[in-house]
Amino acid sequence: MHQLENRTIFPSQGLRGEIVVPGDKSISHRAIMFAALAEGSSLVRGLLRGEDCLSTLAAFQQMGVQVEDRGEELLIEGRGLRGLQEPGDVIDCGNSGTTMRLMSGILAAQPFFSVLSGDKYLRRRPMARIIKPLVGMGAQISGREHGTKAPLAIQGGMLRAGEYHSPVASAQVKSAVLLAGMQVEGVTRVLEPHLSRDHSERMLRYFGVDVQSFAGGASVCGPANLQGRDVDVPGDISSAAFFLVAALITPGSELLLKNVGVNPTRSGIIDILQQMGGSIELLNKRELSGEPVADLLVRHSALRGIEIGGDLVPRAIDEFPVVSVAAVFAEGETLIRDAKELRVKETDRIAAVCDTLGKIGGQVEPLEDGMRIVGTGRLQGGRVNSFGDHRIAMSMAVAAQAAGAEIKIEDTGCTTTSFPNFWDLLAQVND
Ligand code: S3P
């Protein structure tokens, strides 16, 4: 559980300089998982040392995976698909939905018993979305509230390959099915209504697994044999997003964000902010361990409101709290639709954004599947609560950069979930 702390953030005179944001959270989880399941060792560079990824790392250490921490790098000794040991205790996934949902897919096909639990926020989040397809493949999983909530008890065993049509565009659902499927004989397919982030598909291929991506979904041919590989984790675009918006809304700002992952299934935030009139340039485009990367140059810009929906939503799903802050500083109205998933994130992010921005003078109307935000060009100072959600806390710190007076943010310790040095970087670019 993170520490309860409060912070007061003062308006900025302009954010300037060059920063490197920490490693991508989604890619870090997968690097740990796939390295642990591979034959041979893998060296992972740039791993995010946030609480969520540390939960994944601890889970595999509990199952016998040896890890050598070399500071900048982590050496993970893979145990192969059949080398994990039954954990001696409950696996604590902390606040991490990715840990719980992806691990469920892995553990459903392992020949032992395991229990997954987490903090009070994670224990409230829907798990039926992964249990249903896994049970369809023959898995034995039970949980609280008629098998829909954690703790989850998994009696692993032989599964069948299958095909699953997911009603939601969720990389966690897609990955859980692929990770179960890669352990069994035959082809397992997952179809989704919109393309969700494809880090699992890319990294499994990078580890030598036969994974196909096609319009509408992905498939894996099992049983797979993962080969240990060195992985360079790019900076997290979801963390960069806070600095992109902070620079765009604060006069006098110019920032260079180095080495940011710009995978097209994640780069919706760049498209959204550019459509709003934001000046963001992608420099030095390259590829790192199968993932596209660039440096992002962002300058303060006049923004205008836009409509956001459809395919763009899963490509920016974690960024809507900070997009809402940008929308307040834009001219005209911003309408966010097709984003019902926001209601089942670390917190109900539609309710949390309306509450927090509302308390500092933002005009935000909640919709069942999104929000309508009136761009007024200003926010006032005040007091808000993060609801224990890292992205709400950081979005409020971004709002404070361009607000009329300081904002006191309660419960800011949660930022260690995904961005342990957020406050230091914010101070650095304000120096
Ligand atoms: C993630 C997928 C997304 C995202 C989460 C990380 C992943 O969740 O919101 O922060 O690493 O696969 P959903 O799969 O529920 O959309």
Structure description:
This protein is an alpha/beta fold and about 425 residues long. The protein has 2 domains: about 210 residues, UDP-n-acetylglucosamine1-carboxyvinyl-transferase, Chain (Alpha-beta prism), CATH 3.65.10.10; about 200 residues, Alpha-beta prism (UDP-n-acetylglucosamine1-carboxyvinyl-transferase, Chain), CATH 3.65.10. It has 13 helices and 23 strands. Helix 12 links the parallel strand 22 and strand 23. The longest helix is centred in the first third of the chain and has 13 residues. It starts with 5 loop residues before the first strand and ends with a helix. It binds shikimate-3-phosphate.
Secondary-structure topology with pairs:
Blueprint: E1 6-9, E2 16-20, H1 25-37, E3 41-45, H2 51-62, E4 66-69, E5 73-77, E6 91-92, H3 97-107, E7 113-117, H4 128-136, E8 140-143, H5 144-147, E9 149-155, E10 163-165, H6 171-181, E11 186-191, H7 199-206, E12 211-214, E13 217-222, E14 231-232, H8 237-249, E15 254-261, H9 268-275, E16 279-288, E17 291-299, E18 307-308, H10 320-328, E19 332-336, H11 349-359, E20 363-367, E21 370-375, E22 382-385, H12 390-401, E23 407-410, H13 422-429
Parallel strand pairs: 2-15, 3-14, 6-7, 10-11, 18-19, 22-23
Antiparallel strand pairs: 1-23, 3-5, 4-5, 7-9, 8-9, 11-13, 12-13, 15-17, 16-17, 19-21, 20-21
Bound molecules: shikimate-3-phosphate.
Averaged pLDDT: 98
Bound molecules: shikimate-3-phosphate
Beta-sheet strand percentage?
A: 25-35%
Distance between the termini: 31 Å
Shape: globular
Q: Report the biggest beta sheet as strand number plus sense, adding barrel if it closes.
A: 4 strands, mixed
User: How many helices does DSSP assign?
Assistant: 13
Strand order of the largest sheet: 2-15-17-16
Measured as a percent range, the helix fraction is 25-40%
